[in-house]
Each structure stands twice: as structure tokens, then as C-alpha cells.
Amino acid sequence: xxxxxxxxxxxxxxxxxxxxxxxxxxxxxxxxxxxxxxxxxxxxxxxxxxxxxxxxxxxxxxxxxxxxxxxxxxxxxxxxxxxxxxxxxxxxxxxxxxxxxxxxxxxxxxxxxxxxxxxxxxxxxxxxxxxxxxxxxxxxxxxxxxxxxxxxxxxxx
Length: 157
Prior knowledge:
The protein is mainly α.
């Protein structure tokens, strides 16, 4: 019982920190309401439990833990259009087409990256974006906007 309380407390602490930093970034970008509503679905039971167990359940991840997390992650992506994965059109031939993200969700996505980084002790998304940008299947116009925003903040050369 105490172990479950400890896991829940640790997860609440991280989410509160993350949401606070995302709110500050959203407010700075002119979309404070998105900062307030950001990641509300993480409090839904079908996301809460699997996330808590995956990140705070202990060192060893079981196949069940990973499967439950993967299901929660896909639900989270499809509930939250600030994730670039939300804008992926899976085609019948197996291909994937990146759709252009509405500007407000693109702003929230960048705020999310910054907020997650700050919650984990990083001042900039520069290194994280450099490491991950080629893994992101973004519409070309979305990438232009994202990189322009990062460049304006000195987070991209």
C-alpha cells in the first residue's frame, strides 16, 4: 500500500512540475489556456496507472508493463493534438503521410518539449531536438515553423 502511494506521489510531483513549466512556456507563447489544459488526459485512469508503473514502478520493466504503457501512450497521443504523432495519416499501402499541424498545437508542442526539458533539469531543447529531429515525421511547413521558433529563441543554429 505504501509503495503504491510513494509511486503515485512521485508521479504527481513530476506531472505538476512538467505542467507548471509547460504553462509558463505556453503563456510566453501567447496560449496560456493550452498550458492549463495541457496533458489533462494523463490523469485519466487508463493513462495514469500504466505511466506510473512504467516510470515509477521499479527498475525492471515487464512485458506487461511495457504493453500497458504502449496502449496508454497511443491513447495519450490520440487525445492530445500537440503531439506530432497525432498528425500522422497511416495509409492503406503502409505508408505514412505527415499532415500540417495547426499553429496553436505546434506552439504547444514546442512548449511541451521545453517544459519536459526544464522539469528534467535542462535549460534548452537544443541538444534534444538535434538528437530527435530526424526521427520526427513532420509536415515540411510544420518543420519550418518549429525550427523558426527554436531559432528565434537561440535553441537552433
